[in-house]
Amino acid sequence: MSHPVPRAAALTAAVALFTGLAAAPAHADTATQRQRDFAAAATEFGVPQNILLGVSYLESRWDTNAGTPSTSAGYGPMHLTDLREAGVAGTHHDEGTEDARGDDARPATHPQAGPAAPPPTLQTVDEAARLLRTDAKTLRTDPAQNIRGGAALLAKYNTGNNWYDAVARYSGSTDQAAARTFADEVFDTVKTGITRTTDDGQQVTLSPTPDLVVPQHPDPNPAGVECPRRVTCESVPAPYQELPKDDYGNHDLADRPNSQKIDHIVIHDTEGYWANVLDLVQDPTYVSWHYSIRSADGLIAQHVPTKDVAWHAGNWYVNAKSIGIEHEGFAAKGTWYTEAMYRSSAKLVGYLSRKYGIPLDRAHIIGHDNVPGTTPATIPGMHWDPGPYWDWSHYFDLLGAPLGGFGLPGSSLVTIDPDFAKNQPAFTNCDGPGTTCVPRGSEAVVLHSEPSESSPLLVDIGLHPKGTASTMAVDDVGSRAATGQRYAVAEVRGDWTAIWYLGQKGWFHNPRNARVAKPAIGWVVTPKPGLATVPVYGRAYPEPEAYPAGVTVQAITPLPYTLAAGQKYSSGGTVGSEYYWATTFDPANHVVVKGKLKYVQIQFGHRIAFVKADDVRIVPAF
Fold this sequence. Notes:
The protein is α+β, with helices and mostly antiparallel strands and 622 residues long. The protein is built from 13 helices and 28 strands. The protein has a six-stranded mixed beta sheet, sandwiched between helices. Strands 20-19-18-15-21 form a five-stranded antiparallel beta sheet, with no helix packed on it.
């Protein structure tokens, strides 16, 4: 349960805030247009400029995002929301053929969910338009007017000369604790200051206010919720419930990490709005995940204890050894993720990585799009969220584990790390088949079959069984390297670099003055001498002899790819073979099967994969 901010504390915060504002230096005359727009709007509506800048940063990082809506229907630097324009979508759990559970020992799960009514908080553009006597389209498309609209709303929300409460209300959250968390993040940003270049090339500076007092609150989180301090979490339990026909849902009880080590955290997006997502995870006939994070204010809801196994990744081996986190948002519709959500997510992932010893790298903090198919038949239906517009580089900066730049020049291993704002692949199908996506920043680097932009993309025989080349469709990950992933260099020709990818050379433009890949250090795997090829797998299952009586042996099925002699792939570490037998409602009958067989996780294509340790050599990259 959340509690309101005590009035005395709020007033004290307001006094401290104004003290800090008085000390804030004026911006130089060299400020760019965006900077001047903030200054003008702050003066016009009587809003402290650093508060206006701080709120905008927590919403959009001062970006325009090419006029596209955020994952919670917000537009422009001030994130004015307009659900009418952004539209309503369902949930990605209803799309494709992926079985979220991904366990061959149980029937596939393909539940369907109906649309939900969107929340009224996603329509602030109308109120701003009334205050400015303009129209919603102007506020969505004109950055200067968008900033004026946000300033007008803040001024209206400032009752009792209390800017802290005004900022909290601006979050749009109906949960007071979550609104306070948003305001705390704004105040922290105002206190420390920040400078960055926006996605449209504007230089904006929020000068630090080091003597600003950020209000302190008791931990608002209910007992039993696994969350870090300084974020707001709530408990929205997913039901473990017996169903007809010897079925049950929507997750499995376990005893991790005592029973199985947790190796991965899987980042998802919901493809639906908050209320609908929470309804789904509370349906015993549906699927599950451990946490959801709200876009507008970063509120975290926990659904499944981390000791238990949720059904979220479409691969039972990965499910049994991972924690799944859903983010309110959309992978394809040209949408962007708010800074408030990025920050809450990074705090949660940092907390979980420390708790379970999960490395903060892209071999272990993965997207749903990096989870491998279990067999050749399941590859085409695997999901591909959070999509190419999730900013992995910024996310890892927030985690305190920045990507790239740690290897020596000429290293045979590279980390993909393009400039997110400048890297704008020409994707299609964001708004339906045949449509062209709005050009905007992306974490994805597109690979070609030759060192030329006009050459075909690579062939992913798993995604395209007929052997046709991959496409620029936003959901086609068959010829796409993701930020933070590490690959072995196959060849360099001038400004072009080739990496080993799905058994092929994947070429990308990597000019010296605008690198999209940086030298890395680490280990790579290659077939042992005498082996022309080795099989590649989507899960690390035990040898048949490891299964006790009464537990069905799971097939070790290779994927339709091979790792050939002379090729190298980045190692994500050696793992033991495991299978979690959980087919009954009573967890007393569940068994963790552990074999003698060892595997090595590799970065094989866009998705991770596994090879048997006995088949490969692990050598340092030079």
